[in-house]
């Protein structure tokens, strides 16, 4: 059984926020899904290696040289929500607006 | 000209003979979209101006007689990035995103002279089996407008089935090409993992995702898959195995082809009419000379739980990049950097995407990793071995693509778990990385298409093309055309 507190904790790890009604709904749904996933515990996996990728490659290396794919700085900044002087603009990292923050 | 009566070879002959032009084909597509898309919602973005300009330029230059794909329009699922053409992944998060580069598959098809007609609707970030989780609008099924087209490549499937285009690309993480292909009565192939470069495919579950082709005719997919296959240094998981010309397998004799039919694919929860149609299909393949064996894939029932642990875990990691900073949606009214992340993600993602991120984050979190992620990855090994064992002495595994035919809009959207089980027959091919396709196998009593799934060994798409084309020639289900019934709104 997953609790509402656990769900709230997972949400904070995932950088998501939910209001109380959403949190209740997600707790119910995740609980059902996780219960379904718990069926995996019926499988005997003693000594079985996990599969996390299915290519035949082990590692792929390339020379550590810059790649010129013809994309300019202006191109790259085109989709940035807020820019200033050709840089990506973000809000202040430390909240200075609230006295109790 | 209707794409419903055409194949790529015929179009090519007419283009070379000057009976039609590439611009005519783009116009035909735009007319069909005009006629049907207000009902279907197959497209998120119609690339009309640029497509016309490209076709006009190609007509001036002349159609290359050695290149079957030149001048033919194609649609791309909206999670395949297209330079200068909005790419949304069906999400509010990316609804203003204009990529600055082309996916490798797009680049390859443009080099072959194919025209990008537009971007097709999909479940948000490819998470869903009905195209109802799209931020924009649900796509409808051209065989019955009250029903879903399947998903997540539902827009691509509906666009092809309705004759808006002759071909579309989709992506398949747990069945997202094959299930909509089945629901729309078309052919759809998910190639071997690594066969096609994923560069420029917006990532969902990177060890499962694969781009593939959806067409009405089998040979048309063979042409396009041949053009998009091959190693790409930009995708280190793409294989160095040489890709054959897949059209060589079309119309080959299937005498002696060894087919395995797993009991588990005809078990509980599979619709009786679907079973009947697929069994009929198997008899037809037998008459064509195939040899049928009944086999067991005992781990089939663990596919859904293992997949939802693993694919959600990969998704939770892949979707961390959407933080409102460099591209995509950024929430307003934020006080600090952490606020930007949390608010942008909470407002930018829809409920299904959040559910998967939450599931994945849970499975990877301290204290649960071994019980969920690692356990599921071990079960994946067993599922893969199941397949390897059966495919060691069979050419194909065949069963239904989906447990049912297209369901009604809204019928399953409030019950995520019920929807997850729609993937029960398609997930295993992604688990094992093997190629798999859905082939039209007739209709149920409601006139809804049934799909038959063909699964082959890694890098043996050839056996699928062989059997699918033989089956297509024997049954000619592609001659049936969608009715566009229902959909009073």
Automatic annotation (TrEMBL), chain A:
<comment type="similarity">
    <text>Belongs to the GatC family.</text>
</comment>
<protein>
    <recommendedName>
        <fullName>Aspartyl/glutamyl-tRNA(Asn/Gln) amidotransferase subunit C</fullName>
        <ecNumber>6.3.5.-</ecNumber>
    </recommendedName>
</protein>
<keyword id="KW-0648">Protein biosynthesis</keyword>
<dbReference type="Pfam" id="PF02686">
    <property type="entry name" value="GatC"/>
</dbReference>
<keyword id="KW-0547">Nucleotide-binding</keyword>
<dbReference type="InterPro" id="IPR003837">
    <property type="entry name" value="GatC"/>
</dbReference>
<keyword id="KW-0436">Ligase</keyword>
<comment type="subunit">
    <text>Heterotrimer of A, B and C subunits.</text>
</comment>
<comment type="function">
    <text>Allows the formation of correctly charged Asn-tRNA(Asn) or Gln-tRNA(Gln) through the transamidation of misacylated Asp-tRNA(Asn) or Glu-tRNA(Gln) in organisms which lack either or both of asparaginyl-tRNA or glutaminyl-tRNA synthetases. The reaction takes place in the presence of glutamine and ATP through an activated phospho-Asp-tRNA(Asn) or phospho-Glu-tRNA(Gln).</text>
</comment>
<dbReference type="InterPro" id="IPR036113">
    <property type="entry name" value="Asp/Glu-ADT_sf_sub_c"/>
</dbReference>
<keyword id="KW-0067">ATP-binding</keyword>
From TrEMBL, chain B:
<feature type="domain" description="Amidase">
    <location>
        <begin position="24"/>
        <end position="463"/>
    </location>
</feature>
<keyword id="KW-0067">ATP-binding</keyword>
<dbReference type="InterPro" id="IPR000120">
    <property type="entry name" value="Amidase"/>
</dbReference>
<comment type="similarity">
    <text>Belongs to the amidase family. GatA subfamily.</text>
</comment>
<dbReference type="InterPro" id="IPR036928">
    <property type="entry name" value="AS_sf"/>
</dbReference>
<feature type="active site" description="Charge relay system">
    <location>
        <position position="77"/>
    </location>
</feature>
<feature type="active site" description="Acyl-ester intermediate">
    <location>
        <position position="176"/>
    </location>
</feature>
<comment type="subunit">
    <text>Heterotrimer of A, B and C subunits.</text>
</comment>
<feature type="active site" description="Charge relay system">
    <location>
        <position position="152"/>
    </location>
</feature>
<comment type="function">
    <text>Allows the formation of correctly charged Gln-tRNA(Gln) through the transamidation of misacylated Glu-tRNA(Gln) in organisms which lack glutaminyl-tRNA synthetase. The reaction takes place in the presence of glutamine and ATP through an activated gamma-phospho-Glu-tRNA(Gln).</text>
</comment>
<dbReference type="InterPro" id="IPR023631">
    <property type="entry name" value="Amidase_dom"/>
</dbReference>
<protein>
    <recommendedName>
        <fullName>Glutamyl-tRNA(Gln) amidotransferase subunit A</fullName>
        <ecNumber>6.3.5.7</ecNumber>
    </recommendedName>
</protein>
<dbReference type="InterPro" id="IPR020556">
    <property type="entry name" value="Amidase_CS"/>
</dbReference>
<keyword id="KW-0547">Nucleotide-binding</keyword>
<dbReference type="InterPro" id="IPR004412">
    <property type="entry name" value="GatA"/>
</dbReference>
<keyword id="KW-0436">Ligase</keyword>
<keyword id="KW-0648">Protein biosynthesis</keyword>
<dbReference type="Pfam" id="PF01425">
    <property type="entry name" value="Amidase"/>
</dbReference>
């Amino acid at each position: 059984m997953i609790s509402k507190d656990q769900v709230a904790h997972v949400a904070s790890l995932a950088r998501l926020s939910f209001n109380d009604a959403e949190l209740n709904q997600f707790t119910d749904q995740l609980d059902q899904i996780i219960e379904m996933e718990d069926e995996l515990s019926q499988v005997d996996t003693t000594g079985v290696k996990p599969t996390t990728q299915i290519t035949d490659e082990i590692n792929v290396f390339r020379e550590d040289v810059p790649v010129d794919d013809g994309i300019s700085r202006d191109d790259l900044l085109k989709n940035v929500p807020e820019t200033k002087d050709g840089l990506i603009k973000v809000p202040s990292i430390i909240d200075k607006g609230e006295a109790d923050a | 000209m209707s794409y419903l009566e055409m194949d790529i070879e015929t179009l090519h002959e007419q283009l070379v003979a000057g009976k039609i032009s590439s611009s005519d084909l783009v116009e035909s597509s735009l007319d069909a979209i005009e006629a049907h898309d207000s009902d279907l919602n197959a497209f998120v973005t119609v690339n009309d101006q640029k497509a016309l300009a490209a076709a006009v330029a190609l007509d001036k230059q002349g159609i290359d007689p050695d290149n079957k794909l030149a001048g033919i329009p194609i649609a791309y699922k909206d999670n395949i990035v297209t330079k200068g053409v909005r790419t949304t992944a069906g999400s509010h998060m990316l609804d203003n995103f204009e990529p600055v580069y082309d996916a490798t598959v797009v680049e390859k098809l443009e080099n072959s002279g194919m025209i990008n007609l537009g971007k097709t609707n999909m479940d948000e970030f490819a998470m869903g089996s009905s195209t109802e989780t799209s931020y924009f609008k649900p796509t409808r099924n051209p065989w019955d407008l009250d029903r879903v087209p399947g998903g997540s490549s539902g827009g691509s499937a509906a666009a092809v089935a309705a004759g808006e285009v002759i071909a579309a690309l989709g992506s398949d993480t747990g069945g997202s090409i094959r299930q909509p292909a089945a629901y729309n009565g078309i052919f759809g192939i998910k190639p071997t993992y690594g066969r096609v470069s994923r560069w420029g495919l917006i990532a969902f579950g990177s060890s499962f995702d694969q781009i593939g082709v959806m067409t009405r005719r089998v040979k048309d997919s063979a042409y396009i898959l041949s053009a998009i296959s091959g190693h790409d240094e930009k995708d280190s998981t793409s294989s160095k195995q040489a890709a054959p010309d897949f059209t060589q397998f079309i119309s080959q004799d299937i005498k002696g082809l060894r087919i395995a039919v797993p009991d588990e694919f005809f078990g509980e929860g599979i619709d009786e009419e679907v079973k009947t149609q697929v069994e009929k299909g198997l008899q037809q393949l037998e008459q064509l000379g195939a040899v049928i064996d009944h086999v067991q894939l005992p781990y089939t029932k663990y596919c859904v739980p293992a997949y939802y642990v693993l694919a959600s875990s990969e998704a939770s990691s892949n979707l961390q990049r959407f933080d409102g900073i460099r591209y995509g949606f950024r929430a307003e009214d934020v006080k600090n950097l952490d606020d930007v992340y949390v608010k942008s993600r909470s407002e930018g993602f829809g409920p299904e995407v959040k559910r998967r991120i939450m599931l994945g984050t849970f499975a990877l979190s301290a204290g649960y990793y071994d019980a969920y992620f690692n356990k599921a990855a071990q079960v994946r090994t067993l599922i893969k071995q199941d397949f390897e064992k059966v495919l060691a002495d069979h050419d194909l595994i065949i069963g239904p693509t989906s447990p049912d035919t297209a369901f009604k809009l809204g019928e399953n959207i409030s019950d995520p778990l019920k929807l997850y089980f729609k993937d029960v027959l398609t997930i295993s091919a992604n688990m094992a990385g093997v190629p798999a396709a859905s082939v039209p196998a007739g209709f149920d009593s409601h006139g809804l298409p049934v799909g038959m799934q063909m699964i082959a060994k890694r890098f043996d798409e050839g056996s699928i093309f062989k059997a699918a084309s033989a089956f297509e020639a024997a049954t000619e289900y592609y001659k049936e055309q969608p009715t566009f019934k229902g959909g009073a709104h």
